[in-house]
Amino acid sequence: SAVISQKPSRDICQRGTSLTIQCQVDSQVTMMFWYRQQPGQSLTLIATANQGSEATYESGFVIDKFPISRPNLTFSTLTVSNMSPEDSSIYLCSVGSPSIGELFFGEGSRLTVL
Amino acid sequence: EDKVVQSPLSLVVHEGDTVTLNCSYEVTNFRSLLWYKQEKKAPTFLFMLTSSGIEKKSGRLSSILDKKELSSILNITATQTGDSAIYLCVGYDKNQFYFGTGTSLTVIP
Predict the structure, then answer these.
(1) Which of residues 15-54 of A touch B (CB under 8 A)?
(2) pLDDT per residue over A90-105, tens digit each?
């Protein structure tokens, strides 16, 4: 299994500002994902973070709003840009093991936008 | 379009009851099905199922996969208030994980 450290754990932000969430894994991983979970809903995939190249975004999510960096196989960041109250969610970093199909999650970042 | 559907969406039971949560999947290149429990923020892993008909068990929780019916169930016996959570079913096709809507379980003392 992988140990994933995600921070901040929670934050309260003002409308129009940006917040960067960090995800650190204790081992090198191939698959790294960013998910959003809005209140009362299940997880929605934002993007797959690719090491050394641009992230692959899902329908409805764009790089300008959610820029992602992945400089190496153990670290990634997700930025939520120009925030609005609709961005209030839990953001989760996760890593997958393609050979065995397991998925591990960071502790999550609870973001509240006022 | 690949998808995973769970039922019911929510469930309220009394302590001691037995519950069955359902998951059906349409994943083209299906490899495995995973169950997670989410209490606060991060989902915690419960089971991974790859073979049909083989029950996986952990304490009061058990799960089984039916590849013919493209479905899985998660059973919880003698429920406790600590079982109150959202239970997520996830299908995997080697490239992507497909999340179900989740079942919200509330166990009343």
Answers:
(1) 33, 35, 41-45
(2) 999 999 876 667 888 9
